[in-house]
Amino acid sequence: MIKSILLSWLTRTDLGNLNAGEGAGNLSDLKLYDNGRKPYVSGQAVRRALFDTIQRNYPEHFHCSPETPCGDVENCWSCDLRGFLATEEGKGGTRRWSPVKSSPALGQIQKDIINDLLTRHSDITKENRESKDMRLAYVQMVENTYKVNLVIDVDNIGRVVEPVIETKGKKQKVTGYQTTIDIGEQERMIRVQALLDGVYHLSGFAKQARALNSLAPEFLFISLKNTYNQRGLNALDLDHDCNMHPERLSIILKEHQMLGDQVCVGWTPGVITNESEIRPVFEQYHVPILSVLEAIEWAKEQVGKKQG
Ligand SMILES: [Zn+2]
C-alpha cells in the first residue's frame, strides 16, 4: 500500500526571473536566500503552478477558484488537492489541509545576478508632454539549477476524516474519528496520476506570462513509500559546482531499501557534474535509471498496480 510519494527534482533554467518579489517602483527584483547569493521561488508559487497545470489538463474537475472554495472534496479537485479555508459551511467542512506539500524551488549555485533594463515605448502622447512617453523598468535575472521537493499524502486524497465530538452538559470531548468522505481507491489513483502528470508538465510561473522559463523536472528522484514520511528531501542537494554527494545518496538509498520503499530516477544527462560518480550509486541499489517521462510513467503504473 503506497501511503505517500516523494518527488524531488533538479531543473536548470536559462537567464530569467521566475518569481520576483513585488519590488519598489519599476524594479522587478528576484527573491534571494543564502545572504542574497542564491535565488528561490516560493513553495506557494510552485504549488499554484502545479495545480494550474493540472487544471489546464482537467478543467472539468475544477469547480471553483481557490479564493472562493466550494468545499466539495468529493467532486472538486481544486478543493481536494489545494485544500481550503472557507467562511461558509461546505460539504467537506470549512477547512482542509492540502495533501500536497511543496518546498520552495531553491537555486543550488551562486551566480551573478543580471539587471536588465527594459524600456517600454508608447505611441500615446501624454497630455502635458511634448514627447512620446517612454517608461523604464529593471528586471533582475539569474540562471541557476533549482531543486524542488513535493510530497503527496496519497492516503488523504479524496478522504475527509473528522473528529467525533461528544457533548455532556457544557463539556465537549473527542471520542474518536470517523471518515465522512472517501472517494475510493480507483478514483484516488486517478487524482494521484493527474498529480504525477502535472509534475511532468509543470508550467505557468508568474513571470512566464511574458517570459518563457520552466521548473519542470530534468533530474527526478521518485520514492513510493509504505509509510507517510518526508525522508529523502536532500538526496539531490548539489554543491556549488553541481556535484551530488555520493555517500549521502548511498545512505538515503540504503534506508529506502530497508524500508521496502520503491525508488526510481529520471535522468537527463548534463544536469549534474559528477555523473560518472553518481550513476554507480543508483546501480548499486538497483534503482531503475530512466528518462523523466519514463520515471513518471513508472510511478503511475506502480500506483495503479498496488491498488489493484
Ligand atoms: Zn471547489
Automatic annotation (TrEMBL):
Keywords: Antiviral defense
Keyword Cell inner membrane: no
GO biological process, one term: defense response to virus
Purpose of the protein: CRISPR (clustered regularly interspaced short palindromic repeat) is an adaptive immune system that provides protection against mobile genetic elements (viruses, transposable elements and conjugative plasmids). CRISPR clusters contain spacers, sequences complementary to antecedent mobile elements, and target invading nucleic acids. CRISPR clusters are transcribed and processed into CRISPR RNA (crRNA).
Protein name: CRISPR-associated protein Cas7/Csp1, subtype PGING
Protein species of origin: Lihuaxuella thermophila
Lineage: Bacteria, Bacillati, Bacillota, Bacilli, Bacillales
